[in-house]
Design brief:
303 residues; N-(1-d-carboxylethyl)-l-norvaline Dehydrogenase, domain 2; 2 domains; globular
Length: 303
């Protein structure tokens, strides 16, 4: 199967490492990236500490018509520009799989894609970190979860092969509920670790519990309005479990802030605020998170 990956970050490289032995896996570089500057290989460290050098192969955008499946593993705010770039070269029966944090991306891209385009969603609980452009580490065993965004079914041949060959990968008809659950986890852990500049495990301390609980209350209320049932106690337990399991991890939002990059706050707590505007149910703690993260982003721009 011909697989094209868009996004050579930690998740893109993890997908490449897990699929490259069975399939022809190529990356689509940015339109503005000179070919001479592209890395030809990278070092991958697995969960056991073993390192292996893997070769990178690239495809030109005109060759997307030959792809059997395209996986976009990008920041949420990078999705619309990427889809604008590839849209003229897509064929509708090639699944376009989106792997990103937060919610709101589908609403942004659906208008530029054909009504019959196959669009899927991929969620991940895998842990991976790109230490350098040429060094990626698999930091935590997790799962890949696939579901439908538009017109896609589990019977699609490309989906069947991904489920079979990716490992720890499964199809979920209730992917929207699972996406809301992940949104809730990210809406608590990501902004608070960035605001307080702490590793995930620090959130288990008592001084953060009140703010975490208020965030959970607001998210459950917005999900309920969207006809998604999230059990408050179960969600709280899940968040606490993730905090324990990723205690030594630095959240992606904290890493973005520390590196002076734009964060995905608009698609995480910002999405909760969009829901709040529709539901007329206030979400002051989510608003505070957005305000504080935006202030940190501006502070980094001035530095």
């Amino acid at each position: 199967m011909k697989i094209v990956l868009i996004g050579a970050g930690a998740m893109g490289c993890l997908l490449h490492q897990q699929l490259q032995s069975r399939h022809q896996v190529q990356f689509l570089p940015k339109a503005t990236t000179p070919l001479a500057s592209l890395h030809q290989n990278y070092s991958f460290m697995d969960l056991h500490g073993s390192r292996k050098d893997l070769s990178l192969h690239y495809v030109q955008v005109e060759q997307l018509k030959q792809a059997d499946v395209i996986i976009c593993a990008l920041k949420a705010y990078q999705m619309r520009p990427a889809v604008d770039y590839i849209q003229p070269y897509l064929h509708s029966d090639c699944p376009l799989i989106l792997l990103h944090n937060g919610m709101g991306v589908l609403q942004q891209i659906r208008s530029v894609l054909a009504p019959d385009q196959l669009i899927g969603l991929m969620l991940s609980t895998q842990g991976a970190r790109r230490h350098r452009p040429d060094f990626v580490q698999h930091t935590g065993q997790g799962q890949w979860q696939l579901g439908n965004y538009q017109n896609l079914t589990e019977q699609c041949p490309a989906i069947q092969l991904l489920i079979e060959d990716l490992g720890n990968c499964s199809w979920h008809d209730d992917i929207r509920t699972r996406q809301w659950t992940k949104l809730a986890i990210n809406s608590v852990i990501n902004p608070l670790t960035a605001i307080y500049d702490i590793l995930n495990g620090e959130l288990a301390k008592v001084q953060y519990q009140s703010r975490m609980a208020m965030l959970v209350d607001e998210i459950v209320a917005q999900a309920d309005y969207a006809e998604i049932t999230l059990d408050k106690e179960a969600l709280t337990n899940t968040i606490e479990q993730v905090i324990r399991q990723t205690a030594q991890n630095s959240s992606s939002m904290r890493e973005d802030i520390l590196a002076g990059r734009c964060s995905e706050i608009d698609y995480i707590n910002g999405y909760i605020l969009q829901c709040s505007q529709q539901s007329k149910i206030e979400a002051p703690q989510n608003q505070l998170c957005v305000t504080q993260i935006k202030a940190l982003e501006q502070q980094n721009k001035r530095a």
